[in-house]
């Protein structure tokens, strides 16, 4: 059985959820409410995760709703993002979370939405705290041998020839090992983006534990079939899957 994308299955009619962010934004800018609803579905899970991470646990629903509304207002006025919707939304959420934090400290905030439309530096290429912690946790979850080869090659800059005697492997075997380790690190990093809280359904728990392997196409055919069937019926798990797809595109 071939790998099946639950939102682009063979024989399925083309739908709005198959469009990329740029196409959806163009439709939303022309007044199509379904296009922006598709963007909301695609990024709602990630948006709530970020809002909670920024310390807005109790107000995460309000932060996310307000941020989506602010971006929509800009889009309808011909402003805002053209393609990088995820990054733009996350910047808006950071602004809104900061505004609410200042308000809670009795500092008068500004509700000037226009400031969100200005270029915002994304940490000069540095990872934010969540991303750093996700990378760290993913690395620490790997088998010791994978951690060793990644550390020596990617951190210390050593070569497979230098590592061969240390690992008792030929240079070619070291290269194969580091390939598997890097692939495992990418998959473990994706899994860090899955909501840590336990869902009510045991099926949801089982599926979410396999989502990173499903996205990276390393799951067995049987597991792929089970995950695909569940995603077709569970909107919440589908939202997580859609977010992992976007993260996976960034990871490569």
Commentary on this structure:
The longest helix is centred in the first third of the chain and has 21 residues. The protein has 11 helices and no strands. Helices cover 64% and strands 0% of the residues. It folds into 3 domains: 103 residues, Orthogonal Bundle (Rna Polymerase Sigma Factor, Chain: A), CATH 1.10.1740.10; 64 residues, Orthogonal Bundle (Arc Repressor Mutant, subunit A), CATH 1.10.10; 56 residues, no CATH class. About 10% of the residues have low confidence. By secondary structure, the protein is mostly helical. Helix 2 packs antiparallel against helix 3, helix 2 crosses helix 4 and helix 3 crosses helix 4. One of its GO terms (molecular function) is DNA binding.
């Amino acid at each position: 059985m071939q790998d099946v994308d639950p939102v682009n299955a063979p024989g399925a009619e083309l739908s709005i959820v198959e469009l990329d962010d740029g196409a959806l934004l163009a439709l939303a800018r022309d007044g199509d409410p379904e296009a922006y609803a598709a963007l909301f579905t695609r990024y709602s899970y990630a948006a709530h995760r970020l809002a909670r991470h920024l310390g807005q646990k109790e107000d995460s629903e309000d932060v996310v709703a307000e941020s989506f509304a602010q971006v929509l207002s800009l889009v309808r006025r011909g402003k805002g993002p053209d393609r990088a919707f995820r990054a733009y939304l996350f910047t808006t959420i950071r602004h809104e979370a900061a505004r609410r934090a200042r308000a809670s400290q009795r500092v008068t905030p500004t509700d000037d939405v226009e400031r969100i439309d200005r270029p915002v530096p994304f940490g000069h290429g540095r990872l934010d705290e969540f991303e750093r912690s996700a990378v760290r946790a993913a690395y620490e979850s790997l088998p010791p041998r994978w951690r060793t080869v990644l550390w020596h090659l990617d951190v210390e800059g050593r070569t497979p020839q230098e590592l061969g005697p240390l690992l008792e492997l030929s240079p070619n075997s070291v290269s194969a090992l580091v390939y598997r380790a890097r692939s495992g690190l990418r998959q473990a990093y994706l899994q860090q983006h899955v909501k840590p809280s336990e869902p009510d359904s045991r099926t949801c728990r089982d599926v979410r534990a396999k989502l990173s392997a499903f996205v990276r196409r390393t799951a067995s055919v049987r597991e792929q079939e089970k995950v695909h069937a569940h995603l077709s019926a569970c909107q919440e798990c589908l939202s997580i899957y859609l977010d992992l797809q976007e993260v996976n595109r960034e990871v490569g």
